[in-house]
Amino acid sequence: MKKISPTDWKTQVRIFEKAGCTFIRQSGDHLIFHHPSAKRAVVIPRYDEVPVTIILNNMKTIGMTREDYLRQIHE
Q1: Which domains are delineated in the chain?
Q2: 46-55: per-residue pLDDT in tens?
Q3: Residue 43 has what pLDDT?
Q4: What angle do helix axes 66-73 and 52-62 make, rounded to 10 degrees?
Q5: Beta bridge partners of residue 42, listed in sequence order
Q6: Which of 8, 24, 61, 63 has the maximum number of C-beta atoms within 10 A of its C-beta?
Q7: Are the C-beta atoms of residues 7 and 56 closer than 8 Å to each other?
Q8: Nearest to 73 by CA among 2, 15, 8
């Protein structure tokens, strides 16, 4: 199975918007998104490389599987 690697924030925004997240607001360098099935916000920092731990936490928040993530990153 392919590994999840750090990506830039623009790629993360594209992936999570395709997964159903909607932009709510920005707080400093952090973009705050809402997902209908999530109990808390999805936060994407505006970093050149978003760490894998943040990506995995956001995936867990909305219930996204590794396969879904990897499929969307290659679209």
Answers
A1: 9-73 (3.30.920.30)
A2: 999 999 999 9
A3: 97
A4: 110
A5: 33
A6: 61
A7: no
A8: 15
